[in-house]
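step 4 of 6: structure.
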Amino acid sequence: MYDVQFHSSAFESFDASEGLLGVNLERFEEVLKLAKKGDLVQMTFDTSTSKLVIHIDGVEFTMACIDPDSIRQEPQLPEMDLPISFTIDEAQISRGVKAADMVSDHIRFRCDEATQTVYVEAEGDTDDVSLELTSDEIDSLVPAEGNALFSLDYVKDLSREFPKSGSIALTFGQDWPMMMEYELADGECDVLAMLAPRIQTD
Amino acid sequence: MYDVQFHSSAFESFDASEGLLGVNLERFEEVLKLAKKGDLVQMTFDTSTSKLVIHIDGVEFTMACIDPDSIRQEPQLPEMDLPISFTIDEAQISRGVKAADMVSDHIRFRCDEATQTVYVEAEGDTDDVSLELTSDEIDSLVPAEGNALFSLDYVKDLSREFPKSGSIALTFGQDWPMMMEYELADGECDVLAMLAPRIQTD
Amino acid sequence: MYDVQFHSSAFESFDASEGLLGVNLERFEEVLKLAKKGDLVQMTFDTSTSKLVIHIDGVEFTMACIDPDSIRQEPQLPEMDLPISFTIDEAQISRGVKAADMVSDHIRFRCDEATQTVYVEAEGDTDDVSLELTSDEIDSLVPAEGNALFSLDYVKDLSREFPKSGSIALTFGQDWPMMMEYELADGECDVLAMLAPRIQTD
């Protein structure tokens, strides 16, 4: 699950009443690729046709919207116990994911409170991987004893969106979801990704 | 349909009587890729074996030719009424094609004589695209009222061959074929591509 | 068949008794890709678990080994008569292979002793290719009359591993295997690849 917020500074101008709009993200992404770096993108919602009109350097794209009521509602989040947090460079996570991907479909994040170390681990049938993250690799560690297991495919999908060379704030707890927070576009956009854990049944 | 002409300046030397040669274009293209930029390509037609011998930096490639009589004859062209013409940057056509490709299998070129504007348009089931081309984007416009519809796949194939950042001269008329003319190799090669329209049946 | 030797200068430190280790090359290659250029790779063989423990910048990879007895033994090589040898730039072989690939599944290396020339040749059903290599393209030629035919697929596989812009020493004889020798990593690694010929049955 993603929660993305744009700061007002991300907009050149803004004139809108409150509202909720459903858009086909794939189509929307395609349209935005018509813009070159630095091009302004102008969006107008036509309330009579319920279409979003997008202007990009001479191109007018008229896009049908999706009724927000037809989109799956976001789940209610329970109170969560996430005592472990730290920030880490995107490249370190990518390395851990790449190494884990060689041996398993799952990846474990584990914190050792005593040694103030976070481990990214994966266990295969014959081969194992462990990436040790100490204060050299991570910042602002709030340590606690705990670990959580995640589906590697989902972690791969999420980490692919991390900004290159960016800083990622991770928060997790014993068998709780993991929160991954980072900034895009020079801080004009805040992203929070949340990933549910895989609960290991022994 | 393509009509490609090489100027004499494109040749280092030339010694041939008039003739017609059929070649397998795919094979010919592969062979020419053996040449590095700046390499001379020497071609000799061996009339005894009916083979084309191609020399490229030490490589001798002997290529069987195709009997020209076995190749489909080029069609007789009717007199055409193509009152609209203009030149445009390759990048603008690429953008129009890219945008149209999101919503439809067809693309329309339309000229509004009054506003001296050319539109590249595509209509999908729910989404529409329109690229407006004014004197900012086009040169040498000879305007007239008219529009023509084309298969997007063919336009894509043809536009892929346009020289990057090159200038393309387009000529069209109401439901007539479109002519696309451009230069390659610093003007040593003139290309004319012709594309038949799709006639819309309402 | 490959015979690869690392010089002692390729190692930062080395502490081992003599031994034979079987490793899954594909897996090993994947693991090594975790290293960035300049990273040290530390390998320890754990004799109690028969696993190879690989450390690369914080990542610990524990890899199961393969029983050397279960790997196919290298063949006994007969005495060979390989009177022709020369060195050549990797780019020239690539060109010959690329050209041959257009017309045939086989490639012939042929030496003409009188003209001190080596030919790389391929014959197709309708098209032929010949790359002539004289003293301009090859060094240290020891000429003799002879030629040998090879499966193009194997030559392609082997030549793909040649160092870009590197120098390759080739040795062959009439219908004998070809030896291909080159250096990697600034001479810290010597590679000898051997390819069996295809014997033409007329």
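step 5 of 6: annotate
 - Chain A has two domains: 2-70, 84-195.
 - Chain A has a mean pLDDT of 93.
step 6 of 6: archive
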